[in-house]
Design goal:
single chain; alpha+beta; 5-stranded mixed sheet; 11 helices; 60% helix; 9% strand; rod-shaped; disordered N terminus
Length: 405
């Protein structure tokens, strides 16, 4: 079963006005930035106001108008996130006759450059340049040539726009990287889920032949008892023993895969019976024949009979460990140890040195889903799985599986 990822269309909150954030309010960071912008506009406005009115005497009403307009412009900056373009246009007009509103107009222009594309910023910047002759006519600078004032105005406007566009580009980059990281994490979670589902399906398929065999034995011997009620006591006891043993083993197999959903397309045949712990020496020999240096340590009681379900899980764990060592630690020696006893559980450990130098460069990339499958298999069996780098510089895959008495 395939699943498709659907990503919602996300807009970075750092690039859209406050009223377009789906009801999201202003954050603490936004308030700090807004207060800082207000203070900067006030300081610039006071400096320009003092300089402009020192050079020339104006009527009291004009001085009051200048001060009130500048104060209103600075306070209006607290709404610059909601209406950046409208506020910038209004402050351009106000700044044409109010020296105290100059700082607020620059901050508003910077805000538009941060939240809007250049095609929106350019007309507002042009309006600032166009209104400069009006400002210079009201506040003439006798010590500075006319063209110098225009050049300075253009330079200030350019710096504000470039700075705002830089902030916008940086925020877009940060958002893009964050979005990619979130998408990658979502895709990785999906791969893990798919690996778990595939592992569950594979375990279910492995159980098919085993359970069918157990149940067929139960049916055969139960039928014999039904149709031969006069059979000798020895045969009845032997058949009952077979039924009891088969039923117990079938229950153990079912307990190992309880909750596993099996999905096999129509027409697929069950897989052949899976290998068990008795096939482990052949797996070791096969790895050695492939060129691996494998040290094999078997520490199980000679008389112990390993259940088939336990043996299958152990075989798969060792098989995955050898596969990983062959892929990611080519040329390194591998130590495989199998120990345990009924009642104590079965312990498996696959250890190899991490590759260095030329062998490290030959590492084959992997999807990382093999360990996920082992973890799922071990968890379903009621065991534990550990893997990772050790302090000695080795890679260690360790598993413990319950082994009933």
């Amino acid at each position: 079963m395939s699943r498709e990822l659907e990503y919602p269309r996300l807009l970075p909150s750092v690039l859209v006005p406050e009223d377009e954030r789906s009801g999201r309010g202003r954050s603490t960071r936004d308030w700090v930035v807004d207060v800082l912008a207000f203070l900067i506009a006030v300081l610039i406005g006071l400096a320009v106001f003092a300089d402009a009115h020192d050079r020339q005497d104006f009527p009291d009403w004009f001085v009051l108008l200048d001060m009130v307009s500048g104060a209103a412009a600075c306070v209006a900056l607290f709404w610059r996130r909601r209406w950046p373009v409208h506020l910038a246009v209004a402050l351009v007009v106000v700044a044409a006759y109010s020296s105290a509103a100059g700082g607020a107009a620059i901050v508003a222009l910077f805000t538009v450059a941060v939240h809007r594309p250049f095609r929106t910023v350019a007309p507002i910047a042009a309006a600032v340049i166009v209104t400069q002759p009006v400002y210079i006519a009201i506040f003439p600078q006798s010590s500075t040539p006319y063209w110098v004032g225009i050049v300075l105005s253009v330079l200030i406007v350019t710096v504000a726009i470039v700075w705002g566009m830089f902030v916008r580009a940086r925020r877009q980059l940060v958002f893009s990287l964050r979005d990619r990281a979130e998408r990658a994490e979502t895709e990785q979670q999906l791969r893990v889920e798919q690996a778990r589902a595939q592992e569950r399906a594979r375990i279910a398929r492995e159980m098919h032949d085993v359970l069918a065999h157990r149940i067929s034995l139960l049916s055969l011997h139960a039928g014999a008892l039904e149709f031969r009620p006069d059979a000798p006591p020895e045969e009845v006891a032997r058949a009952a023993g077979v039924i009891r043993t088969s039923a117990h083993q079938a229950l153990e197999d079912l307990r190992a895969v309880i909750g596993v959903l099996r999905e096999v397309p129509d027409g697929d045949r069950p897989e052949r019976p899976q290998p068990t712990l008795a096939d482990l020496p052949a797996l070791i020999d096969e790895s050695r024949a492939a060129g691996m240096r494998v040290q094999y340590d078997w520490a199980l009681p000679p008389e112990a009979a390993v259940p088939e379900g336990l043996g299958r899980n152990a075989y798969r764990i060792v098989q995955e460990g050898l596969t990983n060592a062959r892929k990611h630690a080519r040329g390194s020696a591998v130590d495989v140890s199998v120990a345990g006893a009924p009642g104590d559980g079965l312990t498996l450990e696959i250890r190899n040195r991490l590759p260095v130098g030329a062998f490290a460069a030959l590492e084959i990339p992997g999807a990382g889903t093999g360990i996920v499958g082992l973890a799922e298999r071990t968890s379903l069996a009621g065991g534990r799985l550990e893997h990772g780098r050790t302090d000695a510089g080795d890679y260690r895959l360790w598993a413990w599986l319950p082994w009933a008495t």
